[in-house]
Amino acid sequence: xxxxxxxxxxxxxxxxxFVCETCSSSLAFDPRTQGFExxxxxxxxxxxxxxxxxxxxxxxxxxxxxxxQSCRLDRTIPRLNDEANVELWRRLExxxxxxxxxxxxxxxxxxxxxxxxxxxxxxxxxxxxxxNVVTGHDGGLITINLAEADDARREQIRTDLHxxxxxxxxxxxxxxxxxLWQRFVVSGEExxxxxxxxxxxxxxxxxxxxxxxxxxxxxxTQFVSDYAASHPWEDWAECAAHxxxxxxxxxxxxxxxxxxxxxxxxxxxxxxxxxFDAVLSQWFPLAESLNELNRSMGLHDPYPFVxxxxxxxxxxxxxxxLRRAAASDATMAHADAVG
Length: 339
Ligand SMILES: [Zn+2]
Ligand SMILES: [Zn+2]
Ligand SMILES: [Zn+2]
Fold this sequence. Notes:
Blueprint: E1 4-5, E2 12-13, E3 27-30, E4 35-38, E5 74-76, H1 83-105, E6 122-126, E7 136-138, E8 141-145, H2 151-160, H3 168-184, H4 189-198, H5 205-214, H6 232-255, H7 276-296, H8 309-338
Parallel strand pairs: 5-6, 6-8
Antiparallel strand pairs: 1-2, 3-4, 7-8
């Protein structure tokens, strides 16, 4: 993900921003320009219909539209009379927009179902109350179980299934992978190339699973994940998801302070550095980079904190006390050794 800046004051913005923290401008992300635009005054008619619930910060293409390019793809959303549902749905939409951004950056369109001849996209976000919900893709329709947006539930499922990685962004990338297959691989020469590498997708699904469990241990080197081994379609979807993980996170790295470091004063040993401001001047860009890189992988911020002038002074005192303690400890250890 590229670095975004406020069109009014040039402050750094995040993909999730609704307003600029510095100048308080109301902002919306425009998927066509892949940047933020102001949403004040006359422009406010371009706010997506889901903005009032803090669910969407994208800009509509036209004032007459009800929703943005992302929200218009929703066929079913959760019942909103339950505040907990709104929060879970919000998380799904944030992850979905990140993956639609990926597709936009690849130069791929994301037509809605019913838009025209091309296979269109649609999303069903279903809760357990709607019956047995199976996350998956079918002819452009992507279904996601609302429970996946609940961190505790998703982590439980991840543990139960012995998966190393399970995120909302990962789900959207995987299911969009199935969609891309159906739109771009389903016939012609690409299908022949696909079968040569991934195998024949016409194999019986149940038989493919039985074969999978009967395989010798070497099979693992052939697949990007255990789940990829279940069927050529899943293998493709997993590879498509990994491709998006890689280009998205690398793109974030390139535009992050880590990818283009501007080091004022190098810190050789952060533990022993006496200048706390020098430590912080390197920590801030690193923390920002770590957070953004994790978001690209669909993970939580590893450092979800803001250091204020007041808290920085407390940290500075911690450093000073520990440095003085270390100096006296070293003196005592020396005295012990000599004595
Ligand atoms: Zn601003
Ligand atoms: Zn929207
Ligand atoms: Zn799948």
